[in-house]
Design brief:
This protein is about 40% helix and about 15% strand. The protein has one domain: Rossmann fold. It has helices at about 45-50, 80-90, 105-115, 140-145, 165-180, 190-200, 205-215, 220-225, 250-260, 275, 280-294; strands spanning about 5-15, 15-25, 30, 55-60, 100-105, 120-125, 235-240, 260-265. It has an 8-stranded mixed β-sheet with strand order 1-2-4-3-5-6-7-8, sandwiched between helices. Helix 1 (about 45-50) packs across helix 11. The chain is globular. With about 290 residues, it is α/β, with parallel strands linked by helices. The protein starts with 6 loop residues before the first strand and ends with a helix.
């Protein structure tokens, strides 16, 4: 079946960086935020198609991905810059208020945006968000990021998340990460699309994003995030796959309690259920948006 959804594709410039965005449908605005730059706005294809019949759906490519500019300076990927891009897209699309939906890094950006300008956020849907309020044992990704620049012995698994490993075999890293993030339930077609998006990324940009995160301790990072919880006043839905191999599902359990949010665990799903369970996640988002309208 052909997708006949009418779409408007444009771009906004902020600080000299071009951010490509797309608008489809009409109704209350739902902004689907980008995740890490190893993906692009195509990861939300199922949600755009499923939501645009009753909502105005906005997606955009994060700086460093897709059709947006790809600066090399790590400072360009500071989280404050990424949050500012979110507001720039809202401004460019004439959006005063929107429901923000984010997966992984996008979940963190949505959380920070809602804390920074609560009057512009009608609701939050956080899918396996990179928001750790516990400050407890670090995730495998956090541990790998702390050793990103070290010369490590060659290996599989998170040993691939390393600057020197990327220099040796970046496509191998992309394939491993995509398969790890999608999880065992991903179909061959879904894996192929994820790999295509990942190979469109560059090792230089991804390394710059890792450098931008710095070496802040998990406990300090968690304390900072806990300090923002009371600033988030909108309704929140937290969704997390129980088989997520990137962000611990326990993070979302704690986050949902802190935000007094509805928590939906997706049994057997991985880190990106909006991709592997497109219809199910779309229905959750649509139900949440309809609940806000009622």
């Amino acid at each position: 079946m052909f997708d006949t959804t009418e779409r408007h594709v444009a771009a906004v410039r902020r600080g000299g960086v071009r951010i490509a965005y797309e608008v489809a449908g009409s109704g209350p605005t739902v902004l689907l935020l980008p995740a890490w730059m190893i993906s692009n706005r195509r990861m939300w294809s199922a949600q755009v198609a499923g939501l645009c019949g009753g909502a105005r759906v906005v997606t955009y490519d994060a700086r460093g991905s897709g059709e947006s500019d790809r600066p090399a300076d790590p400072a360009a990927y500071d989280v404050a810059e990424l949050v500012a891009d979110t507001f720039a897209v809202l401004d460019a699309t004439g959006t005063d208020r929107a429901v923000l939906v984010g997966n992984s890094l996008g979940g963190l950006l949505a959380f920070l945006a809602a804390a920074q300008q609560p009057e512009r956020v009608a609701g939050l849907v956080l899918i396996a968000p990179s928001v750790d309020l516990t400050g407890g044992p670090e995730s495998p990704m956090q541990r790998a990021a702390a050793r990103f620049d070290e010369q490590l012995p060659e290996g599989d698994g998170w040993a691939r998340y390393n600057r020197h490993a990327w220099q040796r075999d970046f496509p191998g890293f992309v394939r491993w990460f995509v398969e790890t993030a999608l999880g065992a339930e991903a179909s061959a077609e879904v894996r192929a699309e994820g790999l295509a998006q990942g190979l469109d990324a560059t090792a230089e940009v991804l390394a710059a994003t890792v450098a931008a995160r710095g070496q802040q301790r998990a406990s300090d990072r968690a304390a900072m995030l806990r300090g923002l919880v009371d600033r988030i006043t909108c309704p929140v839905l937290v969704v997390h796959g129980t088989d997520d191999a990137v962000n611990p599902p326990a993070w979302s359990e704690v986050l949902a309690v802190a935000l007094r949010a509805e928590h939906v665990p997706l049994v057997g799903a991985g880190h990106c259920p909006q991709v592997t369970r497109g219809a199910e996640v779309t229905d959750l988002i649509a139900g949440f948006v309809q609940g806000l309208r009622r």
